[in-house]
Amino acid sequence: MAYKTEAIMDARNNTGTDSYRLLITRRFGSEILVVGNGPDWSLPRTEIPSRQRPAEQLTAAIRKNLEFETYCLFVPIALSSAGPESNANYAVMESVKQNDPATSGTYWMPAAVLGHNCDTKEARAVREALGELNSYTTGEKPGPFGKAGWLRELCQWAEEQIAPLGIRLTGNFRQLNASPTFSLIRLETDGVALWFKATGKPNEHELAIALSLARLFPRHVPRVLGIHLAWNGWLSAEAPGIELGEIAECSVWERAAESLAELQTSSIGKCSELVEGKCRDLRLARLSEWVDPFLARMEECMAAQEKPSPAPLVKSELASLRDSLAEGCELLESFRLPDTLGHIDFNPGNILVSADRCVFLDWAEGCVSHPFLTFEYLRQHMERSNLDEPAAGARVTAAYLRPWQAFFSPEELGRAMALAPLVGVFAYAAANDRWRLPETLRDAAAAGYLRSLTRRMYRQAVQVAERSAPCLESL
Predict the structure, then answer these.
(1) Cβ(226)–Cβ(164) under 8 Å?
(2) Would you give the DSSP letter of residue 384?
(3) What is the mean pLDDT of the chain?
(4) Phi and psi angles of residue 30, each rounded to the nearest 5 degrees, phi first
(5) What residues are paired with 359 via a beta bridge?
(6) Comparing C-alpha atoms, which of 229, 73, 204, 199 is closest to residue 147?
(7) Residue 328 and residue 243: Cα distance in Å, rounded?
(8) Is the pLDDT of residue 122 over 90?
């Protein structure tokens, strides 16, 4: 989302690394790979770039340094036995092959050796991690992807799903996400590549959205090949194309914007189906109901700010913002543009552009809303992209509005578009229910982020008022 851009840029500029101790298992956790000889063993260690997907980076590092394939089961959030060191990160991995020999300087050690007589700090941490692994295996803790052997089970299931297509898995894969309840993995075949995705709380609804969109708008989303209900996951064919965020040609962004409008216009009249399919209801009537409670919570949030800068909004400014948001929602609704499919976290990383179409990915934040809010999120990203062609913003906006001109006049569309930045940032902030929780005020990062979004709303409200003033004077 564009409102996260500064934080994302900081992350990309971060050249630090994180150190991980690798608990690599095989044979359903009965053996672990260690470095050394006899009682003087230790876990293998590696460093990976900070703020990147750990699963993908860890499997690549093990492939390079230890020369065999693994996949990540989970990264323990905290091991009490690991001690207070800030760099004591652990990752529980599994060898893809169960009988691969250990590389030079390492050996496979039976996990049973880690009896209570082995009392080093590392041994205690390993026992704790293996206990967590066992809790997923026995079902004591929920999480199919925390269990040893799930990749083999996935591949067997995927083979069954693609058998009618006449293609087979090659055995090569790329794991992007790893946690006990979430998975994102690319599986290679001798034809089109596949993606398997599964989601847990709080994104359990994404499966229902993916299935609804694949049924209603097959040209605009990946083709679903199989559903794994027990894992809340689905298998899709890889859509061809390049991520829009990697392209600096204005004409391509114009195509993406027009494709978004075509998708949205094709969703007119389908809002009930979309909401039944677990898309979030962010229609203007619902947003209007949230203005007062949201700003009441933001008044508490501003009062809790300890730093003098940037200055918190005072009560009079919040009251003015309240009036602006209420009026903005009312005006936007008065233009009578239909509610459509939307996306509260729409960004160029989730848009694939090919020669003949654009495909839109990752619909966990799918919603039903005013259509221009979703375009506003894309427009914000475009402003921060590498597009340096003359009038790029105007061109991309015109491309987006082109399909809408079959229904509305350019003047009506222009007035509605002018309100989208204000209502869009409010919809983005209010859609996350975390602002409703009292404990959010005690979370410095979350409270600071909400204050930042609210200050942005206020700036947008001032700009809307300034643009409206000349129009009122001319009356």
Answers:
(1) no
(2) T
(3) 91
(4) -80, -15
(5) 352
(6) 73
(7) 33
(8) no
